[in-house]
Structure formats: structure tokens, C-alpha cells
């Protein structure tokens, strides 16, 4: 039985046939990136930029918010961390919402929530306004973190899927970096208002891109699925093979009974589960969120300019993420993961070593002062 289900879920590779004659313009399979695929991806990753700007917001605004609203370190820490709580709630609900109202509908709903959150932060007069606004932005961010990669994967040809889905991460990085950069020159209220711009851009853009063909097929709207697929692959493309593939896959999935979450913990899934969860744990416990949320104060505590430090992060982050997009389908996922994990480990070690040396230097200075003191001219005696 298990073998039958596995073989049923394996999608058959279909031969991609291109017109070979001098006048042949028709394409089968849609293996190239059309203008509509590129446009749809750009509209989708506008939400990825929102994701990144939400992560990067708390770092350059920390001193301004604490001074203007009189917040303590603990109150500001709540403001910074409540984003992840909202994101967890949004991520839990994201699958159901995306299946119920569609990929485009979920992105639009997420952006409306984010706009409300950003406006609450912009006009905040008390700490609870900030917290509610940050929670709403986090909720929208949690929805976007699921629906954007799913939408991009469902609209792109399989041979381009890896590179296109990586643009999601690139735009997150751009959102973080550009928010750092702008935050060094504008106030925290203006920065929050600027955060609504990519939200509006995506909402407007959603009116000009098609819905995911796979979602349309899943809910039984076969004719609309073909129209959306034709729009994505080009008017001269032959979509019959891909449409049949989507239809076969959807029918097979619908015939399967919905699995319980407890079935995931069977021994045969142990290796995959450990690898998948382990990678997520590795990413979070690597400290990326802590550094992103409080980069400015970290640089200041290290005796460095917060603004210059964040600009330096921008200079490093964007090119390296862009390089990852280029190498994703060339070198593969595993080598990139190993190299990036090693680099992260080295970076964390050097940062920890620098703070350790700073503590040792401070202790030595204190011991010298205590033991020898200074004379009236300020020299050690």
C-alpha cells in the first residue's frame, strides 16, 4: 500500500519539446521565465521585503523610541521580541488561510494587517500601542513567510524553481539592510511610515498577477487553472503536459486521507524529521534574530558606531545573499548550507572573543587602578 501511494505521488518527467523549425514559435512545458512569471515573483517578494523591514526595524530605532516614550530596557525588549510571537501565531494559521482564500488573498490580507500594525507604531503615544502594532506586523509576517515561497514555487517552471524561491530570502535581506540604512538618517515614526510603502505596492500588484494554478486546481476550478497557467507560460506555450501533471497530482492528493500530525513521529520519518527540525533549530539558535533586532546596541556596546556598524552589515549582507541566489541551482543546497553554517560559527566565535577580550581588558585596567592608583598628575604610581 505504501509503495502504491509513493509511486502515485511521484510525478512523471515529461519531455520538453521545442519547435525546431525556423518558424516554430510554440513551446511545450514553459521552461523559460516569462515576463508574467518575473512580474508575479516581484510582486510576491514585495511581501518578503516587508518581512525584512519588520525584522530590521527595532535595531536603528531603539534609542529614539526609548527616549521619546520613556521606555525601560525591559519594555523595549518586549517590543522587540513580541514580533516573533505574532509571527508564530501567523505561521500556525497560514496554511489553513492560504488554502481557504488562496495565495493572492492571503498575501493581500497579510499586508492589510501589516499596514494597521505600522500605523499603530507610527502614531504610538504609549508602550502598549507599540506592542500591539508590533504584534500585528509579526502576525502578517508569519503569514507571508509561508505563502510567498509556496506561491513562487507553484508558478515557476521546475527547472527555475530553486533560484526563484531564493529571491524570497534575498528580499528579506534587502528589507533588513535598507531599513538599517534608512533608520540611520530618519526618526522611528517616519521609518514605520516608510514600512507601509512595500505593503501598498504588493496590494496594488496583486490585481495584475494570476492566482496559483495549483491552488485553483485543488479547489476544482480547472478552467481557471488553465487560464492562469497559460498567462504564466505565455500565449504561444503548449501547457497541456503541465496542466495534466497538475491535474493528476491534485487528484491523487485528494484521494489520500488526511494524515494526523502524530503520524509524523513514526520511526520511518525519524531521519527526515531530525534533519528538518534540526536545520530550523540551527538557524534560530545561531543568534540571527538577536543580532538583527539589536544590531545597533551591540555595536555601541562593543565601542563602535551603531550607524557605521549597520551600514557595514548592509555592505556585506546583500552581496552575499545575492551570491547565494546565483549558486543555489549551481552548487546545490547542502554545500551552501555547510559553508554558511561554518561562516556563521566563525563569525559568532570572533564576536564572542572580541567581547571577552574587552572584559579582560576592563578587569586588568581596574586591577591596575586598584593596586597602583594615580598621582596628582594622573600617572600610575
TrEMBL record:
<keyword id="KW-0762">Sugar transport</keyword>
<dbReference type="Pfam" id="PF00083">
    <property type="entry name" value="Sugar_tr"/>
</dbReference>
<feature type="transmembrane region" description="Helical">
    <location>
        <begin position="109"/>
        <end position="130"/>
    </location>
</feature>
<dbReference type="InterPro" id="IPR044775">
    <property type="entry name" value="MFS_ERD6/Tret1-like"/>
</dbReference>
<dbReference type="GO" id="GO:0016020">
    <property type="term" value="C:membrane"/>
</dbReference>
<dbReference type="InterPro" id="IPR020846">
    <property type="entry name" value="MFS_dom"/>
</dbReference>
<protein>
    <submittedName>
        <fullName>Sugar transporter ERD6-like 5 isoform X2</fullName>
    </submittedName>
</protein>
<feature type="transmembrane region" description="Helical">
    <location>
        <begin position="291"/>
        <end position="316"/>
    </location>
</feature>
<keyword id="KW-0472">Membrane</keyword>
<dbReference type="InterPro" id="IPR050549">
    <property type="entry name" value="MFS_Trehalose_Transporter"/>
</dbReference>
<feature type="transmembrane region" description="Helical">
    <location>
        <begin position="35"/>
        <end position="56"/>
    </location>
</feature>
<feature type="transmembrane region" description="Helical">
    <location>
        <begin position="336"/>
        <end position="360"/>
    </location>
</feature>
<dbReference type="InterPro" id="IPR005828">
    <property type="entry name" value="MFS_sugar_transport-like"/>
</dbReference>
<feature type="transmembrane region" description="Helical">
    <location>
        <begin position="136"/>
        <end position="153"/>
    </location>
</feature>
<feature type="transmembrane region" description="Helical">
    <location>
        <begin position="188"/>
        <end position="209"/>
    </location>
</feature>
<feature type="transmembrane region" description="Helical">
    <location>
        <begin position="76"/>
        <end position="97"/>
    </location>
</feature>
<dbReference type="InterPro" id="IPR036259">
    <property type="entry name" value="MFS_trans_sf"/>
</dbReference>
<dbReference type="InterPro" id="IPR003663">
    <property type="entry name" value="Sugar/inositol_transpt"/>
</dbReference>
<comment type="similarity">
    <text>Belongs to the major facilitator superfamily. Sugar transporter (TC 2.A.1.1) family.</text>
</comment>
<keyword id="KW-1133">Transmembrane helix</keyword>
<keyword id="KW-0813">Transport</keyword>
<feature type="transmembrane region" description="Helical">
    <location>
        <begin position="269"/>
        <end position="285"/>
    </location>
</feature>
<feature type="domain" description="Major facilitator superfamily (MFS) profile">
    <location>
        <begin position="40"/>
        <end position="381"/>
    </location>
</feature>
<dbReference type="InterPro" id="IPR005829">
    <property type="entry name" value="Sugar_transporter_CS"/>
</dbReference>
<keyword id="KW-0812">Transmembrane</keyword>
<dbReference type="GO" id="GO:0051119">
    <property type="term" value="F:sugar transmembrane transporter activity"/>
</dbReference>
<feature type="transmembrane region" description="Helical">
    <location>
        <begin position="165"/>
        <end position="182"/>
    </location>
</feature>
